[in-house]
Automatic annotation (TrEMBL):
It comes from the Bacteria. Residues 248-328 form the HRDC domain. The keyword Nuclease applies. SMART domains: 35EXOc (SM00474), HRDC (SM00341). One of its GO terms (molecular function) is 3'-5' exonuclease activity. InterPro entries: 3'-5'_exonuclease_dom, Exo_C, HRDC-like_sf, HRDC_dom, HRDC_dom_sf, RNase_D-like, RNaseH-like_sf, RNaseH_sf. CDD domains: RNaseD_exo. One of its GO terms (biological process) is nucleobase-containing compound metabolic process. This is 3'-5' exonuclease. Residues 1-45, 326-350 are annotated as: Disordered. Keywords: Exonuclease, Hydrolase, Nuclease. It comes from Actinotalea fermentans.
Amino acid sequence: MAHPDSADTPPETPAPPVAAREAAQPPAEPTVIPLTEPADGVPDVVDTPEALAAVVAAFAAGHGPVAVDAERASGYRYGQRTYLVQLRREGAGTAIIDPVALPDLSALSAALRGVEWVLHAASQDLPGLAEQGLVADEVFDTELAARLLGMERVGLAAVVADVLGLGLAKEHSAVDWSTRPLPRDWLRYAALDVELLVQVRDVLAGRLAEAGKAEWARQEFAAVRDAPPAPPRVEPWRRTSGLHAVRSTRGLAVVRALWEARDADARARDISPGRVLPDAALVAAGLALPRSVAELTELKAFSGRATKRRAAFWFAAVQRGLEVPDAALPSPRGPRTDGPPPPRAWADRDPAAAARLAAAREILHGLSEGLRVPVENLLQPDLLRRLCWSPPDPVTTESVAAALTAGGARPWQVDLAAAPLAQAFVTVH
């Protein structure tokens, strides 16, 4: 047997230099310090006219931007009503307001005339705040800013960690904010949501300016602020999860009847429709087409104790769907719209349009990578599809720019996209 030190033993591979070893390691995660308490403590909930008057005076006397957030009870209550409003401003501190007890907050809105509001995902909160009389003159949206800067994660906690190195707990993000009284831990969470927003805004504003994107952000924030209320959905029952499994028009009629019964019941009881009856139950009935209460309750989705108690109510809806005249059955294709068909059908229906869409998507993908802006923020997907399906005639940079502007694109988007899209359309022809 050869000695371990003999020449027959392969030499040991020398260890790489320290610098090389460090370079081979994945970059260390930045240290994030948990933020557990608001700087000024958790304020009492403002739920009386006297307390609101004091808040109005304090925020009117404050200075700088105001951080604003709102909490809803999605998944618990019907609709998107606001159940808590949080604000923080330098010189005024933090206020947590109960809009159920104080539905008219227009006095606070008046006190903040001309003040920039800082929100995260403003499009989610502004409609509900407007119902309370809170309307912003100027908006800075930290989520939109993060998107324009190409940040990989744009949730509030992720942005705060990236920008400030601080950690926000999100364990109460999906609780029932209609609960009264609200637990102290929930109020702490609510206060922390506005604790750092203005600091985050300042850092992001600086980054936007350095990246040459400050004007883009200004236009995007104005568009969010000025967005009109969303129109009512056409045939909203078609958004039932799993509806694609229901192939027959009779089955669709049953789903529609059940959806309408559930919606009316949920609205009357102020309960989220999904808590009244899950979408899976609607789809199951649309597939099975039960002809009696007994057949309905044999379905697993209707076999629960609470659902069985209301089986007659649900079967009455099923029966309405079963009795719809053939001429009134819902179309399997959905309602007619003024928009183009689904892109998957373009190759057969209009190959030139399909080619334009493919070319346009490639252009936007290239711009997205080069500018570090998500494709959907460069141009609204629905607007792009409409433009590719029905381009202007003749196709020029000017005509494409006009079509984009008419469709709601912001000037910075038009400046970036009009010329390359026009060139691509001409080339495709």
